[in-house]
Amino acid sequence: MSARLIWLILIFCVIFGSVSVIAQTVELQSSWLEEDAHRVRFGATMASGAVGFSGSTMALLSVGEDSISTVEIKQVVRKSPIKAFLLSAVLPGAGQFYLGNRLKALVFLGVEATAWGFEAKLRGQGDTRTDEFEQFNRDHWIQSNYEDYLAWNYGGIRDDELIHVTEISHHLPKTRTQQYYEMTGKYNQFSWGWDDANYDGNYLENYDAINPPPTITNEVFAPVSVRRVAYEGMRHDANEKYDQARKMVAVAIVNHLVSGFEALFAANRYNKQVASNDTEFARLDFQASLKSYSANRDTPFVQLSYKF
Q1: 196 and 242 share a domain?
Q2: Are residues 159 and 96 both part of a single domain?
Q3: Residues 154, 230: one domain?
Q4: Which residues have a Cβ under 8 Å from the Cβ of 112 and sit 6 or more positions away?
Q5: What does the pLDDT read at residue 32?
Q6: DSSP characters over 17-59
Q7: Exposure of 157 by Cβ count < 10 A (0-12 exposed, 13-18 middle, 19+ buried)?
Q8: Measured between alpha carbons, how far is 14 from 18 in angstroms, rounded to an integer?
Q9: Measured in Å, how far apart are the chain's first and last C-alpha atoms?
Q10: Does residue 109 share a domain with residue 143?
Q11: How far is CA 69 from CA 45, 58, 125, 284, in A?
């Protein structure tokens, strides 16, 4: 064996060994058409090989007749489940966006916006109905009528706080508070304050201290008032709107929790998938092929890669 042949063999072994150790892709011989082919092929390799590995980047080295080019594939970093949870707990969909799932992010964010939009609308409707029934109360519930009823039936006392009997169980607030508007419609004790109240067709104007209206000891002796019934209906509608608004708040809170835990579980699944792919055999990839880039000759192509 000639010395020249021995040197050629040694040089070949050194080159092949170097390529194997540094896990790079070596093209033994290239043609003038291969620059674009390399770019497409390495792009596809990067797309398929960069998913699911942590650590360093993977280097691909292309050795051609005239040039050497290196392409690095960046790693996919593991995601933090706690960070994903906290992001979505604060703003639903933020954790999903952090994990790269924009569709889920839009869904959770849409639910959040819808819930608060309906909450604002329903609360506004409740406020409007509250203004309406309070004005209705001011127009048709006459406090002096109620005090006349008290005075005629309880020895001239016009203040219910000074009357200590079973049927006078509530005391009218001095100002028009929420409790004031509630009690004047809810309890029979205050029913003679309505300007259309009547008992067997007799209105308050038909009574006096000598001939007082029946004492309201039970529901049977309570006067009838159409306006009181209408007023209670208005109050019920307002309270129903507020209840619906509170339900929308509950929907928003649940959306925060569901979005947070979904992001937490999704991050764990993502990391498990990364870990399942991160094995020694999965890191090593060897491909050999013979490509025809010209009519005169075939070009052998060897691809050896290791994902760190």
Answers
A1: yes
A2: yes
A3: yes
A4: 91, 92, 93, 252, 255, 256
A5: 43
A6: HHHHHTT-EEESS--TTHHHHHHHHHHHHHHHHSTT--SSPEE
A7: middle
A8: 6
A9: 41
A10: yes
A11: 15, 14, 68, 21
Residue 238 lies in a domain: yes
Residue at 211 is within a domain: yes
Q: Which token pair is 205?
A: 């104007």
pLDDT 10s digits, 8-27: 555 554 444 443 433 333 33
- In this prediction, residue 277 carries a pLDDT of 63
Joined together, the tokens standing for residue 184 give 């004047």
213 and 288, same domain (yes or no): no
Task: Please state, in angstroms and rounded to a whole number, the distance separating the CA atoms of residues 41 and 127.
Answer: 65
- Radius of gyration of the chain from its Cα atoms, rounded to whole angstroms: 42
Domain that holds residue 55: 8-79+278-306
215 lies in the same domain as 259: yes
Phi, psi of 70 (to 5 degrees): -125, 135
Amino acid at 10: L
Helices (H), the chain: 3-21, 34-49, 81-90, 94-98, 102-140, 143-153, 178-186, 226-277, 280-283
Mean pLDDT (the chain, rounded): 79
The reply to whether 214 falls in a domain is yes
- Please give the tally of structural domains in the chain: 2
